[in-house]
Amino acid sequence: MIFLDTIIERMNIMKKKLIVFVLALLLCLSLAGCTDRTPSNLENNSEDGDSTGWVFDRPVEIVMPAPEGSGVDMTMRKLEGYLKEELGTNIILTNMAGASGVTGFTWARGQEHDGYLFQYTSPSAVGAAAMGNFDFDFFSEVKPLTRLLNTYNVIFTRKDAPFTNYEELVDHATANPGKVSIAVQSMTGIDGACMGKFLEACELDLNMVNFEAESVAACISGQVDLIMDTYGECEAYVESGDLIPIIQLSEERNKNLPDVPCAYDLDLDAAQENWYGFTCFVGTPDEAQDAFVEAIMKCSEIPEWKEFLEDAGFNSGKTCTPEEFAVIVEDTASAMERALSFFKNANSH
Predict the structure, then answer these.
(1) Which of 27, 67, 127, 242 could covalently link to 189 via disulfide, CB atoms 3.0 to 4.6 Å apart?
(2) Where residue 348 falls among pLDDT bands split at 50, 70, 90?
């Protein structure tokens, strides 16, 4: 009997434990059902629970109105891994080159602006807009978000050119007016703005030739005497000796080209910033814009990213607020309009 009583007592204890477990489980399920599961992309991110933030819950697409292998493409693909970690989602990179950015931005305009579509661009699209090449009001529909980085153009020549530095270029061009040729990738893009500012400052009579992606090959082969491009895109040719940098169109020397004078060294008002930055279309949720800009800001502080920029000849730590970037975009548009006016006046004489 004692043995039977012990079994019955243990069974009663097990029943009590089972009842307690079931009640606890029901309580947890009840509390879970009362939890606020916001059906949108907004969730509570703060410790005190008084603010909300945007959460990217599906892939973000970034349109690059530039060809593969360009500076825009190269830097974005390097940033992709860092940005993916900060956004917490996958990234879709879409190259859509054509018409100095018109093709890419026009396509992006026709998509849904729900917080998952952004653009990464150079100033070329701004130049196209300043020239009136868009079928819509670019400056009222496209919102600047932040500049990621900036750089400056360099004037290069080939290794067998009759000059190897700026002073020799001035002497040769002065003795041979209109004979020295220089490639221009886009008269209405940032290259046009830089070129116009340089020619207006140096007062050299150079023969401008339109070349697009083939400008480097054209210079190396001797089709043109000079090209204007960034150090980052021409680094390999500089290291091989095929291209010789003559002057950088900036206020400070490039750390990678310490012996090459900048415009300031030569007392030339020819410095013109070339930037890469992010935009979105009006209608994109403000919370998504803020979250995206915050992620870019965090990426810009990653040591490996900064090292990459410096090695590639870009300037690091040049992110800015949307308001500051809007001013930069406006200044760039003004510089391009000024360059176009210069070219028109030069051709009329």
Answers:
(1) 127
(2) low
